[in-house]
Amino acid sequence: MKTMMLLVNPNAGRGGYKAVLGSVLETFCTGGWAPTVYFSRGPGELPRLVAERAADYDMVACMGGDGTLSEVTAGMMRASRRRPIGYIPLGTANDVAHTLGLSARPAECAKNILTGRSVAYDVGLFGEENYFTYVAAFGAFTEVSYATPQEAKQALGHTAYMLEGMRHLGQLRDVHAIVEYDGGVTEGDYVFGAVTNSTSVAGLVKLSGETVKLSDGMFEVLLVKKPQDIRDLGDIISSVLSADFSGPCVSFLKSSEVRILFDESVAWTRDGEDGGRHRDVFIRNCHPGVEIIV
């Protein structure tokens, strides 16, 4: 019988694991797998568990949101032997799940983990030791995802992010940045910047599967300048919603490495969680990264 490390975030998705864990375990057990369940008790525990114990199992699976998957991925990048990752999304945004086309029904996800195939997924290295799965971002609303109370996230989902974001509208400000990327440098005053490997970011920014290749060793980099008037704001909204970045306020490029230098310390998020404040950030695409079952 094959062995599985099953990691559960009890706080994700309004504690929704309680209603589905039994059926998920039944699916795994009847499918010929012996799962060992671990519950996350706080930030930093899952990366440590995966790094230390993943090599002892044939597969690692997790139940939670994008933050849970991010922690599991970070641990897998440090593991002595990398194992395929099965992901059962229970969170609010679930950007990676949307990118991979995973089912929103946990029981169906569990079945697909047993019958699916592994796809390569590049992972980002932020600085010297911090990993991210699908996005590292700065600027407008990057503080919202971790400033929003967990209870509000669980109760309201995307609405919680939007309500928290509205409170920050009056604080919208740009930061001067020099962005070094493969073969070039750009400079400007930006209200938002994101280094991504996903077709969906916060459920709002959508990129096509033709644009995003999850294992090509390249990131998609999005930079947004501060709107000067209503016309600029309309151009930005149109660009984001249509994924047409030909306008003057939004820049889009692809790069395997990105270095961003600021005049001051700027707040970042990694996969929707607090990424700290930095003046000089170097991000590298770790190719090959991990394998996720779809």
Describe this structure in words.
The structure is a single chain. Helix 1 links the parallel strand 1 (2-8) and strand 2. With 294 residues, this protein is of the alpha+beta class. The protein is built from nine helices and 15 strands. Helix 1 runs parallel beside helix 5 (106-115) and helix 2 (45-53) runs parallel beside helix 3. The strands form three sheets. Strands 5, 6, 7, 8, 9, 12, 13, 14 and 15 form a nine-stranded antiparallel sheet that branches. Strands 2-1-3-4 form a four-stranded parallel sheet, sandwiched between helices. The protein has a two-stranded antiparallel sheet with strand order 10-11.
Quick structural summary:
The protein has 294 residues and is of the alpha+beta class. Helices cover 29% and strands 39% of the residues.
Q: Distance between termini? A: 22 Å
The low-confidence parts are 152-169
Largest sheet: 9 strands, antiparallel
Q: Helix amount, in percent? A: 25-40%
Question: How many DSSP H or I helices?
Answer: 9
Shape: elongated
- Count of DSSP E strands? 15
**pLDDT averaged over residues:** 84
Given the helix and strand composition, which structural class is it? alpha+beta
Q: Nearest-angstrom radius of gyration?
A: 19 Å
Give the SSE order as H and E letters. EHEHEHEHHEEEHHHEEEEEHEEE
The portion of residues forming beta strands comes to 35-45%
